[in-house]
Specification:
By secondary structure, this protein is mainly beta. The protein is about 0% helix and about 45% strand. The strands form 7 sheets. Strands 1, 3, 5, 7, 8, 10, 19, 21, 23, 24, 25 and 27 form a 12-stranded mixed sheet that branches. A 6-stranded antiparallel sheet has the order 2-28-36-30-34-32, with no helix packed on it. A hairpin with a 4-residue loop joins strand 7 and strand 8. It starts with 13 loop residues before the first strand and ends with a strand.
Length: about 500
């Protein structure tokens, strides 16, 4: 049976630009008890034609400093949907020093241009790479480390935009660094109204468990992306409906050293393809939650804040949760839009760990500034939640769930049990195991996990880079089985837990 928790969903200065960096399941019926509380906020609108078609935030590599993306290593960040023709791809991330040899690219060979801002005080660099007029069909996007040394704390976030000028798309840009709770990226003056502004920021000195808040400024509604109290990186995006000067601003919950970069892209209303009609994932966001770290960063808080910004079209929010101990499960979740969330029962291999469960809100309300607060029972171990923000779902979208456990003492691919959807919609799957690292799904579904060279095979890196998440858009009632392959051909998984859940289109 599933438990529903209700909620109040409270939910220097060098600026550089260069060209040429390219770079046996159990089905659970949907009967629950619920409680809700009064919403504290809501509303918000879309970005207009110059919009975010999809977004995927990938969490950090080695945010405890224990592991790194090796030199010449490739980090693969899969998009939730195939990129459309004529759009613009944007990738933002940070590195620990001023070394610039990173390559960014995709499987279709689109050409990426780099902008960056280096904070000389804390020796951090923020990068923004973009490729315009994209080739249709890209799922796999890449970052290659060419710095000559291993890189930790990489937290890439990707955007697919439509309505951006294909030739010379950057209108203006600025970077800034400082100390305090108020973050500003430097004043810019667009050449015209309608620019889409992207502001990545990094807190880069001292402390943990901080949270960003989106700016509140005239002529722009900022959306907060990638806001996490453990990861170092945050991004806000908005369309600026003015040609006056603006100093993009946001804030952080405690006084810290920070750096920020803003890039303004020129609009072109006939360029590219907007979000397709029908039920579709608009954003995939990965967050590491509190737990015990093996390196320098500890995570003592039981409360985790996560930006879940969405178009008003988003009406389904799904979180795929994994941890390594049965004690380390969510107890409550709220967000700023007043949504009611369900937390399913835990699926535990060997009655203890690994653990999987789902968190979701159907008939959801979305806002560009929505933030969720998730509380956990303990901080006994790291946990990860992958969020999917979905549009076009039916109001009562929950369909069915199937889950199971197993033990692999040999080697080879592993298949989950099947789940039979009740009709067209989306089926999500996750799998959590003791050992080895997932390398992809072989049965035609969409793989949702970042993979990279340098990751330890079985931890201590965060769960996201070791375990499995995937999804598929369904058109009927065909049973879905997910078969996963793994990095090591000689390391058995030992205990594992798999978990599938289905949601329906109208």
């Amino acid at each position: 049976m599933r438990i529903l928790l209700a909620l109040l969903l409270l939910r220097g200065l060098c600026l550089a630009q260069s060209v040429g960096d390219v770079g046996g399941g159990m089905v659970i019926p949907g009967q629950f008890n619920a409680y809700t509380t009064v919403a504290s906020a809501g509303g918000g609108g879309g970005l207009g034609y110059t919009n975010v078609v999809q977004h995927w935030g990938e969490g950090s590599i080695g945010n405890d400093g224990s592991v790194a993306l090796s030199n010449n290593g490739i980090m693969t960040n899969p998009a939730p949907n195939a990129v459309q023709a004529g759009n613009t791809l944007v990738c933002c991330f940070q590195a620990l020093d001023s070394a610039s040899p990173f390559g960014v690219g995709d499987e279709k060979g689109d050409f990426f241009t780099k902008l960056s801002f280096h904070d000389p005080v804390n020796d951090q660099t923020i990068y923004l790479y973009y490729a315009t007029n994209t080739t249709a069909g890209t799922h796999q996007c890449y970052i290659t480390n060419k710095t000559g040394s291993g890189q930790v704390y990489l937290t890439p976030t990707w955007f697919e935009l439509c309505g951006v000028k294909a030739y010379q798309p950057v209108d203006t840009s600025a970077g800034n660094n400082g100390t305090g709770t108020a973050i500003t990226s430097g004043s810019i003056t667009p050449s015209g109204s309608g620019d889409i502004l992207i502001t990545p920021t990094i807190w880069d000195s001292g402390g943990t468990n901080y949270a960003y808040t989106a700016g509140s400024q005239a002529n722009i509604t900022w959306r907060l992306y990638d806001n996490n109290n453990v990861d170092l990186f945050g991004t806000q995006v908005g369309t600026y409906n003015s040609a006056s000067a603006i100093n993009p601003a946001m804030s952080v919950s405690a006084s810290i050293g920070w750096a920020a970069l803003t890039v303004a892209f020129k609009p072109a209303t006939a360029q590219g393809s907007p979000t397709p009609s029908g039920m579709q994932i608009l954003a995939k966001l990965q967050y590491e939650l509190t737990g015990i770290a093996s390196g320098a960063i500890t995570r003592p808080s039981l409360t985790n804040t996560m930006g879940l910004p969405g178009d008003t079209a988003v009406n389904l929010i799904v979180g795929a949760y994994q941890t390594g101990t049965a004690a380390n499960v969510p107890t409550n979740i709220t967000d700023l839009c007043g949504n009611t969330y369900w937390i399913t029962s835990s699926n535990n291999a060997s009655g203890a760990n690994p653990v999987t469960l789902w968190i979701y809100a159907t008939n959801a309300i979305s806002s560009p500034t929505n933030v969720a607060t998730l509380k956990m029972l303990s901080t006994a171990e790291n946990a990860t939640v992958v969020w999917y923000l979905v549009k076009g779902a039916r109001a009562a979208a929950y369909d069915t769930r199937a889950f199971g456990t197993g033990n692999q003492s040999g080697t080879g691919n592993v298949s989950t049990g099947g789940i039979t959807p009740g009709g067209p919609g989306i089926v999500f799957n996750e799998m959590n195991q003791d050992e080895n690292t997932g390398a992809g799904v072989t049965t035609g579904q969409t793989w949702d996990v970042t993979t990279w060279l340098g990751n330890t095979l079985s931890g201590p890196s965060v769960l996201y880079e070791n375990n499995e998440w995937a999804h598929t858009n369904t058109v009927g009632t065909t049973s879905q089985v997910f078969t996963y392959k793994f990095v090591s051909g000689s390391t058995p998984l030992l205990n594992y837990a798999w978990d599938s859940i289905s949601f329906l289109a109208p």
